[in-house]
Protein backbone atom coordinates (compact mmCIF):
# COMPACT_ATOMS: atom_id res chain seq x y z
CA UNK A 1 0.00 0.00 0.00
CA UNK A 2 1.47 3.43 -0.91
CA UNK A 3 2.72 5.49 2.00
CA UNK A 4 0.37 8.37 1.12
CA UNK A 5 -2.81 6.22 1.29
CA UNK A 6 -5.16 7.52 3.98
CA UNK A 7 -7.51 4.99 5.49
CA UNK A 8 -10.76 6.00 7.15
CA UNK A 9 -10.97 4.85 10.75
CA UNK A 10 -14.36 3.16 10.41
CA UNK A 11 -14.58 -0.21 12.14
CA UNK A 12 -18.20 -1.10 12.90
CA UNK A 13 -20.66 -2.24 10.22
CA UNK A 14 -22.93 0.71 11.04
CA UNK A 15 -20.13 3.24 10.70
CA UNK A 16 -18.90 1.70 7.45
CA UNK A 17 -22.38 1.75 5.94
CA UNK A 18 -23.04 5.31 7.10
CA UNK A 19 -19.68 6.41 5.73
CA UNK A 20 -20.40 4.75 2.40
CA UNK A 21 -23.77 6.48 2.08
CA UNK A 22 -22.16 9.82 2.92
CA UNK A 23 -19.61 9.31 0.14
CA UNK A 24 -22.36 8.47 -2.36
CA UNK A 25 -24.34 11.56 -1.32
CA UNK A 26 -21.22 13.71 -1.70
CA UNK A 27 -20.39 12.31 -5.14
CA UNK A 28 -23.95 12.81 -6.39
CA UNK A 29 -24.76 16.36 -5.27
CA UNK A 30 -28.20 17.88 -5.56
CA UNK A 31 -30.12 18.31 -7.74
CA UNK A 32 -30.02 14.55 -8.19
CA UNK A 33 -31.80 12.52 -10.91
CA UNK A 34 -33.89 10.93 -8.13
CA UNK A 35 -35.45 12.39 -5.01
CA UNK A 36 -37.09 11.19 -1.82
CA UNK A 37 -37.60 7.47 -1.48
CA UNK A 38 -36.51 6.86 -5.07
CA UNK A 39 -33.10 8.23 -4.15
CA UNK A 40 -32.99 5.99 -1.07
CA UNK A 41 -33.51 2.99 -3.36
CA UNK A 42 -31.00 4.04 -6.01
CA UNK A 43 -28.41 4.97 -3.40
CA UNK A 44 -28.72 1.48 -1.90
CA UNK A 45 -28.22 -0.02 -5.36
CA UNK A 46 -25.10 2.09 -5.89
CA UNK A 47 -23.89 1.05 -2.45
CA UNK A 48 -24.25 -2.62 -3.45
CA UNK A 49 -22.27 -2.22 -6.67
CA UNK A 50 -20.18 0.99 -6.54
CA UNK A 51 -21.69 1.63 -9.99
CA UNK A 52 -22.68 5.26 -10.51
CA UNK A 53 -23.84 4.48 -14.05
CA UNK A 54 -27.05 3.31 -12.39
CA UNK A 55 -28.00 6.98 -12.11
CA UNK A 56 -28.71 6.87 -15.85
CA UNK A 57 -30.17 3.37 -16.01
CA UNK A 58 -32.72 2.94 -13.21
CA UNK A 59 -36.36 3.47 -14.15
CA UNK A 60 -39.34 3.80 -11.77
CA UNK A 61 -42.99 3.48 -12.64
CA UNK A 62 -44.71 6.55 -11.11
CA UNK A 63 -46.55 4.37 -8.57
CA UNK A 64 -43.69 1.95 -7.90
CA UNK A 65 -42.58 3.14 -4.47
CA UNK A 66 -46.08 3.67 -3.13
CA UNK A 67 -47.22 0.27 -4.40
CA UNK A 68 -44.18 -1.46 -2.90
CA UNK A 69 -44.61 0.18 0.49
CA UNK A 70 -48.31 -0.70 0.57
CA UNK A 71 -47.58 -4.34 -0.24
CA UNK A 72 -44.76 -4.58 2.28
CA UNK A 73 -46.76 -2.93 5.05
CA UNK A 74 -49.60 -5.41 4.43
CA UNK A 75 -47.32 -8.45 4.64
CA UNK A 76 -47.31 -9.19 0.93
CA UNK A 77 -45.58 -12.19 -0.61
CA UNK A 78 -42.12 -11.69 -2.15
CA UNK A 79 -41.26 -14.12 -4.95
CA UNK A 80 -37.69 -14.29 -6.27
CA UNK A 81 -36.24 -16.02 -9.31
CA UNK A 82 -33.01 -17.07 -7.56
CA UNK A 83 -31.99 -18.47 -4.21
CA UNK A 84 -29.25 -15.82 -4.20
CA UNK A 85 -31.86 -13.07 -4.21
CA UNK A 86 -33.84 -14.80 -1.47
CA UNK A 87 -30.67 -15.10 0.62
CA UNK A 88 -30.10 -11.37 0.15
CA UNK A 89 -33.44 -10.50 1.79
CA UNK A 90 -32.79 -10.94 5.52
CA UNK A 91 -35.48 -12.18 7.87
CA UNK A 92 -34.77 -9.29 10.24
CA UNK A 93 -36.27 -6.94 7.65
CA UNK A 94 -39.10 -9.02 6.25
CA UNK A 95 -40.36 -11.00 9.25
CA UNK A 96 -41.38 -7.87 11.20
CA UNK A 97 -43.44 -6.79 8.18
CA UNK A 98 -45.12 -10.20 7.99
CA UNK A 99 -43.71 -10.74 4.51
CA UNK A 100 -42.99 -14.24 3.25
CA UNK A 101 -40.07 -14.63 0.82
CA UNK A 102 -40.32 -17.54 -1.62
CA UNK A 103 -38.21 -18.98 -4.44
CA UNK A 104 -39.59 -21.96 -6.37
CA UNK A 105 -36.64 -22.63 -8.65
CA UNK A 106 -35.75 -25.85 -6.81
CA UNK A 107 -39.33 -26.92 -6.19
CA UNK A 108 -39.84 -30.54 -7.43
CA UNK A 109 -43.10 -29.67 -9.20
CA UNK A 110 -41.43 -26.78 -11.02
CA UNK A 111 -38.52 -28.99 -12.07
CA UNK A 112 -40.84 -31.75 -13.31
CA UNK A 113 -43.10 -29.44 -15.28
CA UNK A 114 -40.13 -27.63 -16.83
CA UNK A 115 -38.78 -30.97 -18.10
CA UNK A 116 -42.17 -32.04 -19.42
CA UNK A 117 -42.83 -28.70 -21.13
CA UNK A 118 -39.30 -28.22 -22.44
CA UNK A 119 -39.30 -24.84 -20.74
CA UNK A 120 -37.12 -23.02 -18.23
CA UNK A 121 -37.69 -23.44 -14.51
CA UNK A 122 -37.95 -19.67 -14.25
CA UNK A 123 -40.91 -19.60 -16.63
CA UNK A 124 -42.70 -22.50 -14.94
CA UNK A 125 -42.04 -21.07 -11.47
CA UNK A 126 -44.17 -18.04 -12.35
CA UNK A 127 -47.08 -20.30 -13.31
CA UNK A 128 -46.75 -22.52 -10.23
CA UNK A 129 -46.51 -19.49 -7.97
CA UNK A 130 -49.68 -18.06 -9.50
CA UNK A 131 -51.50 -21.32 -8.75
CA UNK A 132 -50.25 -21.53 -5.18
CA UNK A 133 -50.39 -17.91 -4.12
CA UNK A 134 -53.75 -16.44 -5.18
CA UNK A 135 -52.69 -15.30 -8.64
CA UNK A 136 -49.85 -13.36 -7.00
CA UNK A 137 -52.20 -10.63 -5.82
CA UNK A 138 -50.36 -7.95 -3.87
CA UNK A 139 -47.08 -9.83 -4.40
CA UNK A 140 -43.70 -8.32 -5.16
CA UNK A 141 -42.03 -10.23 -7.99
CA UNK A 142 -38.24 -9.92 -7.96
CA UNK A 143 -36.40 -10.97 -11.12
CA UNK A 144 -32.63 -10.60 -10.90
CA UNK A 145 -31.47 -13.28 -13.28
CA UNK A 146 -33.92 -14.82 -15.74
CA UNK A 147 -35.38 -12.85 -18.66
CA UNK A 148 -37.70 -15.81 -19.25
CA UNK A 149 -39.28 -15.21 -15.85
CA UNK A 150 -39.81 -11.53 -16.60
CA UNK A 151 -41.30 -12.28 -20.01
CA UNK A 152 -43.72 -14.79 -18.47
CA UNK A 153 -44.71 -12.28 -15.78
CA UNK A 154 -45.45 -9.70 -18.47
CA UNK A 155 -47.47 -12.18 -20.50
CA UNK A 156 -49.61 -13.16 -17.53
CA UNK A 157 -50.02 -9.56 -16.38
CA UNK A 158 -51.32 -8.59 -19.81
CA UNK A 159 -53.72 -11.56 -19.71
CA UNK A 160 -54.94 -10.39 -16.32
CA UNK A 161 -54.19 -13.79 -14.77
CA UNK A 162 -51.78 -12.35 -12.19
CA UNK A 163 -51.95 -9.02 -10.38
CA UNK A 164 -48.66 -8.22 -8.62
CA UNK A 165 -48.19 -5.07 -6.60
CA UNK A 166 -44.70 -4.52 -8.03
CA UNK A 167 -42.34 -6.09 -10.54
CA UNK A 168 -38.67 -5.60 -9.70
CA UNK A 169 -37.39 -6.54 -13.15
CA UNK A 170 -33.59 -6.58 -13.24
CA UNK A 171 -32.39 -9.64 -15.20
CA UNK A 172 -28.74 -9.46 -16.17
CA UNK A 173 -26.97 -10.71 -19.27
CA UNK A 174 -26.91 -10.79 -23.03
CA UNK A 175 -29.86 -12.87 -24.27
CA UNK A 176 -33.16 -11.01 -23.89
CA UNK A 177 -32.11 -9.23 -20.68
CA UNK A 178 -32.19 -5.71 -22.11
CA UNK A 179 -35.13 -6.57 -24.36
CA UNK A 180 -37.30 -7.98 -21.58
CA UNK A 181 -36.69 -4.90 -19.45
CA UNK A 182 -37.56 -2.62 -22.37
CA UNK A 183 -40.86 -4.50 -22.72
CA UNK A 184 -41.46 -4.10 -18.99
CA UNK A 185 -41.24 -0.32 -19.34
CA UNK A 186 -43.35 -0.28 -22.50
CA UNK A 187 -46.06 -2.79 -21.65
CA UNK A 188 -46.32 -3.59 -17.95
CA UNK A 189 -49.75 -2.93 -16.44
CA UNK A 190 -48.15 -3.37 -13.00
CA UNK A 191 -45.84 -0.86 -11.30
CA UNK A 192 -42.17 -1.68 -11.83
CA UNK A 193 -38.60 -0.77 -11.00
CA UNK A 194 -36.00 -1.76 -13.58
CA UNK A 195 -32.56 -1.09 -15.04
CA UNK A 196 -32.26 -0.45 -18.75
CA UNK A 197 -29.65 -2.32 -20.75
CA UNK A 198 -27.67 -5.44 -19.88
CA UNK A 199 -26.86 -4.66 -16.27
CA UNK A 200 -28.81 -6.09 -13.37
CA UNK A 201 -28.59 -9.15 -11.16
CA UNK A 202 -29.92 -10.66 -7.97
CA UNK A 203 -27.76 -8.48 -5.73
CA UNK A 204 -29.09 -5.29 -7.30
CA UNK A 205 -32.70 -6.41 -7.16
CA UNK A 206 -32.30 -7.46 -3.53
CA UNK A 207 -30.64 -4.14 -2.69
CA UNK A 208 -33.60 -2.24 -4.13
CA UNK A 209 -36.12 -4.31 -2.18
CA UNK A 210 -34.09 -4.09 1.02
CA UNK A 211 -34.18 -0.31 0.73
CA UNK A 212 -37.96 -0.38 0.32
CA UNK A 213 -38.39 -2.76 3.25
CA UNK A 214 -36.29 -0.51 5.47
CA UNK A 215 -38.43 2.48 4.49
CA UNK A 216 -41.54 0.47 5.41
CA UNK A 217 -40.02 -0.49 8.76
CA UNK A 218 -38.94 3.07 9.51
CA UNK A 219 -42.39 4.38 8.59
CA UNK A 220 -44.05 1.84 10.91
CA UNK A 221 -41.67 2.71 13.76
CA UNK A 222 -42.31 6.43 13.30
CA UNK A 223 -46.05 5.84 13.36
CA UNK A 224 -45.82 3.88 16.60
CA UNK A 225 -43.56 6.47 18.21
CA UNK A 226 -40.54 4.15 18.36
CA UNK A 227 -37.08 5.45 17.71
Automatic annotation (TrEMBL):
Pfam families: CbiC
GO MF term list: precorrin-8X methylmutase activity
Keyword field contains Signal: no
Cited SUPFAM superfamilies: Precorrin-8X methylmutase CbiC/CobH (SSF63965)
Recorded coiled-coil stretches: none
GO terms (BP aspect): cobalamin biosynthetic process
Similarity annotation: Belongs to the CobH/CbiC family.
Name listed for the protein in its UniProt record: Precorrin-8X methylmutase
Biological classification of the source: Bacteria, Pseudomonadati, Thermodesulfobacteriota, Desulfovibrionia, Desulfovibrionales
Amino acid sequence: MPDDTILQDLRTPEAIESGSMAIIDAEVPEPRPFAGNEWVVVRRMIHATADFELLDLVRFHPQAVAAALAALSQGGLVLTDTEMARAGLPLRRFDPLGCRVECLMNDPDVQRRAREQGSTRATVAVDVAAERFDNLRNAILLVGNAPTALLRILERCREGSIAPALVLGMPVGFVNAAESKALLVEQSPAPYITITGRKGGSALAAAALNALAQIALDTRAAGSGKE
